[in-house]
Design goal:
Layout (H helix, E strand, L loop, with lengths): L6 H4 L8 H15 L1 H4 L3 H17 L2 H12 L11 H17 L3 H14 L4 H13 L3 H14 L4 H14 L2 H14 L4 H13 L3 H17 L3 H13 L20 H19 L3 H12 L3 H28 L6 H25 L6 H24 L5 H26 L4 H26 L11
Helix pairs in contact: 2-4, 6-7, 6-8, 7-8, 8-9, 8-10, 9-10, 10-11, 11-12, 12-13, 13-14, 15-16, 15-17, 16-20, 17-18, 17-19, 18-19, 18-21, 19-20, 20-21
């Protein structure tokens, strides 16, 4: 920018120009000085860069306000890199990257910092809400979306996201109203039609559901979204059939193996999944499931194998400690672990179907395997620690048990997309049934000559 020219002068505007006047001036001058129309004219190229920089600052209310303060202070030299507005933009962009990578806690922190610089940043509220929702906190998502809509009533994605969050919280009618508003603002919002159709079906309004799902198919065809079209067509074909069917085609058992590197791929995917959900089951299970994609079944099998190793090893040592001989029935122990895994998956499938959840049996297998990993740690601890350390063992069991319960809840609320009330009910039922299965397994493994109270 020339030293004696302000951004307003570069755009040939008064400092009181409206946002629309700024946009019109930029379009006119950008066409005039565009490099494609001026060949190698360096003067035109420099002028184009000045016009672009001026528009970048003046088009955004926050950066324009910063710039106006500089002008009013008598300083026409303005460095946008040191402006608070550029800080909030930079933090927002970093937050988007974290959101894309599935690092939702970090995304929330970055969007919050962006809002510290610019408290009226509607898009930051919107994206922070998305991070909250994917992190399992639908209530916080609704709060942020309310603020985003207050700041920008025409932000159609905010209504759609609030519909998702309200649906998860059980406010179905409010969710439908949000989908209505999103569609009114954008008649080509295929996902809003799709979600509204599914919700109408859950509420028993099959005719309305069919209309919405057909509209979703039409929109997805129009915007050339084959995956969305297939999703809507599958839902449309399901019709009002409430029968329970085991969606085995969705297991996707096409082994992605080509040589040694192919064999290593499921292990890599398992490591990725563990990094995402092991520490944060509420916020990490869904990102892990999405990240592993069509390898979800193989990851579930690897996680189950890990659980089996821990179970067999832990019970073996426990057996040796209490019975004084190393003849633990390893085969029966492994079979008991496998039965527990399959039972959790099947119970999850039936609960999800009865409570009208979404998802697939692949997700049920994935959740079941992820739930067993902490229990495997308990088995190892039980085998390694003696009675003198029973308090430590109890602490380990409580911590791992809590992680397993949170994993189950996350599976129902995020993979099956049940609302909080139904997720809580499903979690309680599954944990209770799993407890009975574990008790039966212990009784089955117990030597006939040893009373059950002999095992700690």
């Amino acid at each position: 920018m020339a030293k004696d020219q302000t951004y307003y002068q570069i755009l040939e505007l008064a400092s009181s120009a409206s946002a629309e006047q700024i946009k019109s001036a930029y379009r006119r001058l950008a066409r005039k000085y565009h490099p494609d129309l001026n060949g190698d004219d360096q003067v035109a190229r420099d002028r184009f860069e000045q016009v672009t920089q001026a528009y970048r600052i003046l088009a955004e209310p926050a950066s324009r306000s910063d710039y106006d303060r500089h002008l009013n202070s008598g300083n026409s030299q303005f460095d946008p890199r040191r402006s608070p507005s550029s800080q909030h933009t930079r933090l927002y962009e970093q937050g988007l990257l974290s959101l894309q990578d599935g690092n939702y806690n970090q995304a929330i922190v970055l969007f919050s910092r962006a809002l510290d610089y610019f408290s009226n940043f509607a898009e930051a509220y919107l994206k922070r809400a998305v991070a909250h929702y994917r992190n399992g906190n639908a209530a916080a998502a609704v709060t942020d979306l309310n603020r985003a809509i207050e700041l920008k009533p025409q932000l159609n994605e905010a209504y759609y996201q609030r519909g998702l969050a309200r649906s998860r919280l059980g406010y179905d009618q409010s969710a439908i109203e949000d989908y209505d508003q999103a569609i009114e603002l954008n008649p080509n919002y295929g996902q809003a039609f799709y979600r509204r159709g599914l919700l109408q079906r859950d509420l028993g309004n099959e005719t309305a559901a069919q209309q919405d799902l057909q509209a979703a198919v039409n929109v997805f065809i129009k915007i050339n979204d084959p995956s969305g079209r297939q999703l809507a067509q599958d839902a449309l074909a399901a019709g009002g059939n409430k029968s329970i069917s085991l969606d085995l085609p969705n297991l996707q058992l096409k082994l992605p193996i080509s040589g040694f590197s192919g064999l290593f791929q499921p292990l890599q995917s398992t490591g990725l999944a563990l990094r995402l959900f092991a520490i944060n089951p509420l916020g990490g299970l869904l990102p892990a499931y999405v990240k592993v994609g069509d390898r979800a079944v193989y990851v579930a099998l690897v996680l189950t194998a890990l659980f089996e190793v821990c179970l067999v090893g832990g019970v073996y040592f426990l057996w040796w400690q209490h019975f004084g001989y190393a003849t633990a029935p390893s085969g029966r122990i492994a079979l008991a672990g496998l039965v527990l895994f399959l039972s959790l998956a099947v119970i999850s499938f039936f609960l999800r179907s009865i409570l009208r959840g979404k998802g697939s049996f692949t997700g049920d297998l994935f959740m079941a395997a992820a739930t067993l990993v902490p229990l495997g740690m308990v088995a190892i601890a039980a085998g390694l620690y003696t009675l003198e350390r029973s308090i430590l063992l109890l602490c380990i069991a409580l911590i791992c048990g809590c992680y397993s319960i949170l994993t189950v809840y996350s599976g129902f609320s995020q993979l099956a997309n049940l609302n909080e009330t139904r997720s809580t009910l499903a979690t309680a039922l599954l944990v209770a049934i799993a407890g009975l299965i574990i008790q039966a397994g212990i009784a089955w493994l117990m030597p006939d000559a040893i009373p059950s109270e002999g095992i700690v």
